[in-house]
Task: structure prediction
Amino acid sequence: MAKKKTADTQVAIVGAGIAGLEAARQLVRLGYDPVILEKSDRIGGHVADWHCLFPDMTPASRLLDDLTDATHDLRVICRANIVSAGRLGDGYNLLLQDGTSIHVRAILVATGFSLFEAEKKEEYGYGVYDKVMTNADLEHWFNTGIDARITGQDVRRIGFVHCVGSRDVKAGNAQCSKVCCITAIKQAIEMKEKFPEAEIWCFYMDLRLFGKKYEDFYIGAQRDYGIHFIRGRVSEVSENIDGKVIVKAEDTLCGKPVKVTLDLLVLMAGMVCNRDNHPLAQALGLGIDEDGYFRSKDNIASITASDRKGIFYAGAATGPKTVPETLAEARSAALDIHAYLSAQ
Amino acid sequence: MMDFGFSLAPSSAINLDTVDLSRYRKLLELEPDARICMGCGSCSATCTAAPFSGMSVRKVILGLQRGQDREVDRMLSACMLCGKCTMVCPRGINTRHLILSLCRICADGTHKEREDGR
Ligand SMILES: Cc1cc2nc3c(=O)[nH]c(=O)nc-3n(C[C@H](O)[C@H](O)[C@H](O)COP(=O)(O)OP(=O)(O)OC[C@H]3O[C@@H](n4cnc5c(N)ncnc54)[C@H](O)[C@@H]3O)c2cc1C
Ligand code: SF4
Ligand code: SF4
Ligand code: SF4
Result:
């Protein structure tokens, strides 16, 4: 049984992505009245930008509508920026940039990830060549149908570049961002459905299709959609006088350099640590891992626990995660918070 | 015996039981980063010498571990040491330096060429 609520809000959730919203929904079920502090001016986090979700092609809006319905009575403070967090009694006093102060007994850090800034990989020409876009731009096009890089039906040759800004020490991210192999295959299939005449190539280093139904997506992409897979990391991209993009790689299975001319190139920008992690970690006294994500107490049994009493994590704040993993962690963190508050 | 017109060709299979790794081991002493190559092919894709000579740092590192010594020597001789491959390696391997070290090992002559050239 949840303890009787005090006049103070007991839990602050930092970040209103799916991790924060799902945790809020569970905490409400457990009898709490959490406050949500969101840095941007809207809720939903990255998933609000996506169209359909692997592996079942569920509309992202359906998940978000459910989460918004379940949490719409809660206090959500948008454009919130925590400047300091002082220990107060058995909890924390959070001070926001506008002088608001909130006393809470537990904090959930659900601040998610940042998308790698594809323009940093200059050799891929994002923001320079006319026909180069990112995975996020493509989701935006699926949602709105508006993008200057995709016009008319003349998209005949499309390339997908895996591992953009991931597994790349030169880009400052050695880690694999986990979701972009399956996202590339999902998006390649969606493009083939929109442009049945198109030839599509995925340039990959390793295909990491670990999740339920992911391998089926891969087989389907080969068998039903005729998508080509080339094992080689794209080394450079250029533009010809017709405005088409030319991609160069080594086909490592064949052992030969390959070149292909394309109407559209999609860069699979990776999930990297949230750029705000350092100031937030400083304000809350939390540890940061080598990869820039928040450091859990341990990565097996207590991924939702931090080194600080009463502060918990959920979702992509601690590393790249899929939607179901994020939701599962949010529920688990809500239970941890309940257990923590009940024991006090 | 009936002659079916077939003759025995030397096997092109790599035998990991007998492969000679002495050059690779020497390379690792000087260039421990050779271990972390993930075979992505960025070096070969960007190499100016590759389209004409088949030069590939990826294949050199792999070839040494598979006893393809003659092929490795052939590729090394085509490298112009321009360093483009080093700029693109996502694992941060100093490939140009690695090639130089390997050339030094080869010049040492302590390594005996295998008779079958593999
Ligand atoms: C291109 C792409 C496609 C994807 N498609 C799928 C898919 O089809 N299926 C699937 O399972 N997964 C998919 N994913 C993964 C999915 O996006 C993540 O699992 C999910 O977004 C993680 O949610 P989160 O709430 O942890 O983080 P986020 O979505 O990053 O949300 C974090 C929230 O916290 C806020 N915030 C950040 N910093 C602060 C701060 N300092 N203070 C206050 N608020 C802050 C942010 O504004 C944001 O609202 C995809 C990922 C990418 C990159
Ligand atoms: S999931 Fe695939 S595309 Fe993404 S970083 Fe890992 S290997 Fe690269
Ligand atoms: S240093 Fe040698 S292997 Fe590397 S890019 Fe130049 S020619 Fe090619
Ligand atoms: S670029 Fe680096 S990691 Fe990739 S194959 Fe060449 S040496 Fe190996």
Q: What stands out?
A: The first strand of chain A starts at residue 11 and ends at 14. Chain A touches chain B at residues 123, 163, 167-171, 205-206, 231-236, 248-252, 255, 257-258 (CB under 8 Å). Chain A has seven helices and 20 strands. The mean pLDDT of chain A is 95.
